[in-house]
Amino acid sequence: MPPPTPTGRAPGPPDGGWGWAVVFGAFISIGFAYAFPKGLAIFFKEIQDFFGTSYSEIAWVSSIMLATTYGAGPISSILVNRYGSRPVVIFGGLLCGIGMVSAAFCTSILQLYICVGFITGFGLALNLQPSVIIIGKYFLKRRPIANGLAMAGSPVMLCTLAPLNQFLFDNFGWRGSFLILGAILLNCCVAGALFRPIGPATVSVKTQMTEEGKGALKEEVTEDAMEMSSPTDVPMENKTEEEGGKDCCEKINQYLDFSLFKHRGFLIYLIGNVLMFLGFFAPIVFLAPYAKHIGIDEYSAAFLLSILAIVDMIARPTTGIIANSKWVRPRIQYFFSFSIAFNGTCHLLCPLASGYTGLVVYSIFFGLAFGMVCAMLFETLMDLVGAARFTSAVGLVTIAECCTILLGPPIGGTLIDTFGDYKYMFIKCGAVMVLAGTFLFIMNYYNYRMLAKEEKERKVKGDPKEDPVRTENEGKNNWNKETAQDGPELEPLREEREGLKKEVNGTNEV
């Protein structure tokens, strides 16, 4: 065990070292979680013919999988808080493999909904949430870059899965392909093994410092413990005694911070994202079937997804670097709003594309816009709520988003069945995304104005108990100052203390 630092601080996010191995594991887990439901679209045309279903019925397969992946967010967050990221991801990988192998023996579309949609979708949920959460524990200064690299796993996997799925289908049929894909998904277990816990080391250092009984350090740790004592951070002895007295709601609230629904910035983010996901995934799900519908051969149709994924692959880390710059990060919410509106504009212009060349151009711009949104999806949430409440925020956001994720592709399929034309589906998706981007831009402008007004009022009052903390404007005023400090950034003790102060003072909350 390494000795405590001379200043008596617990080690903070390392911003490197083993963290890059964690990023690689998250790259794999996030890649499968996001890309796998889209890659399955290669089989939809053939499965539709095999079971004799409509476009809307076959779209429910990806829709249920995506909705389960997002809707199981709170369950995943609770499991991560209780057991850590590593065992949750490994168990999720096992569920993914079991679900796809079971799907290979399905005899009805309803069985596909259960095996592919629910079982595999739940396994992907247990891969997505822990991967996003653990990056926030290993990185602070370089967090946007780390998130961008991890999120790049989605386009890399999609670029690989699209032609691979077409190759597997041509040689083994959709049933044999599902068996092989189930074995491939077991690699998520290997990715989870890389998620070495960072928390226990911090606890050990705190215990060692307390036992040594050094005057100044002992007082500092005691003060930190007093400041952090709250219903969500109870000492182990008291937690054991009071566990039996808590009802179900109190136990759930221990892992999910429902006070976030009083948080102005969180509510703005939640409403905008719920609206956005109504048109976010449907264009990818129907891109390859649309190409086949207008007479393009199977491999060329699959290659459109590869083109989208290659551009997406470049866009995500590039967006992470841009978002980490001193010009963009203080106003990253505006950049995120622009990316959503740009994504919707691409869909509105898609019906103008005629022939394969037009679809290639659309795929390039769609990949760029899609990568920009995905690279900042969780970074903007952490910028709003802070690292201390991020785990709960992710769980609450994903459960709210799952409703529109569930309805998006089937609504698009219904439009295709009704009008016999794909252009109405693209127009619907583009319109709701432009509306979501506009809403977020306007409301974030209002939010920034209110934050500035509230900070000015605090300065006028001169209340020392209401010092600004890193919440909604995490990167606004304090980012440059924090990056210039020496020593570990945002130690776990200080992080928990500041998170508690924010809850007590109600800073930046409605």
TrEMBL record:
GO terms for molecular function: monocarboxylic acid transmembrane transporter activity; symporter activity. One of its GO terms (cellular component) is basolateral plasma membrane. It is a multi-pass membrane protein. It comes from Athene cunicularia. This is Major facilitator superfamily (MFS) profile domain-containing protein. Residues 457-510 are annotated as: Disordered. InterPro entries: MCT (IPR004743), MFS (IPR011701), MFS_dom (IPR020846), MFS_trans_sf (IPR036259), Proton-linked_MCT (IPR050327). The chain crosses the membrane at residues 18-37, 58-79, 91-124, 145-164, 176-195, 266-287, 299-315, 335-354, 360-378, 390-412, 424-446. It comes from the Eukaryota. Residues 457-475, 491-504 have a biased composition (Basic and acidic residues). Its main location: membrane. Belongs to the major facilitator superfamily. Monocarboxylate porter (TC 2.A.1.13) family. It catalyses: 3-methyl-2-oxobutanoate(out) + H(+)(out) = 3-methyl-2-oxobutanoate(in) + H(+)(in); 4-methyl-2-oxopentanoate(out) + H(+)(out) = 4-methyl-2-oxopentanoate(in) + H(+)(in). Residues 19-448 form the Major facilitator superfamily (MFS) profile domain. Pfam families: MFS_1. Keywords: Cell membrane, Membrane, Symport, Transmembrane, Transmembrane helix, Transport. The keyword Coiled coil does not apply. Coiled coil: none annotated. It is found in: Basolateral cell membrane. PROSITE patterns: MFS. The keyword Membrane applies.
